[in-house]
Amino acid sequence: MIKSWENNSSIGLNFWTGSMSTYEKKYPSFRRFIVDEETMLPIRVETWRIDVYAEEPEFVMDHELSQDYGMKDLSPASFDELAERMQESESLSL
After folding, report:
1. Residue 17 class from Cβ within 10 Å (0-12 exposed, 13-18 middle, 19+ buried)?
2. Which residues pair with 61 in a beta bridge?
3. DSSP string, 42-81
4. Which pLDDT band holds residue 93 (cuts at 50, 70, 90)?
5. Residue numbers of the domain that contains 41
6. Is residue 58, in this structure, part of any structural domain at all?
7. Which residue pairs from 70-74 have beta carbons closer than 8 angstroms and sit at least 24 positions apart in sequence?
8. pLDDT tens for residues 35-72?
9. Which of 12, 43, 53, 88: disulfide with 2, CB 3.0–4.6 Å?
10. Residue 94 lies in a domain
11. Is the pLDDT of residue 23 over 80?
12. Higher-pLDDT residue of 24, 89
């Protein structure tokens, strides 16, 4: 979360994502950001992965961020709400 210096409200986000590396036998992955054409704000964040050990490796969508965490959108306010829910539910944060 990126917080405002003036009132500590959430004003932006930093997204961390997986790697295309197979380090420690983890599945390589990447994120696809779908943005609104007019506002250029993200409306979907998809994580795609590949099983490099499969007979015919192919990328498959692993999850979509807002659906996976039950978020109404990808706004900073929704991430604040998610952080609060994660503090209340250990299983959600795993």
Report:
1. exposed
2. 48
3. EEEEEEEEE-TTSSS--EEEEEEHHHHTT-S-SSHHHHHH
4. confident
5. 2-88
6. yes
7. 73/43, 74/13, 74/41, 74/42, 74/43, 74/44, 74/45
8. 999 999 999 999 999 988 899 999 999 999 999 999 99
9. 12
10. no
11. no
12. 89
Domain total in the chain: 1
Residue 93 lies in a domain: no
Amino acid identity of 51?
D
Tokens (6 digits) for 91: 């299983």
Alpha carbon of 77 to those of 6, 10, 13, 17, 85: distances in Å? 16, 7, 10, 20, 13
Q: What is the pTM of this model?
A: 0.81
Residue 27: closest CA among 61, 65, 64, 68: 61
Task: Confirm whether 31 is domain-assigned.
Answer: yes
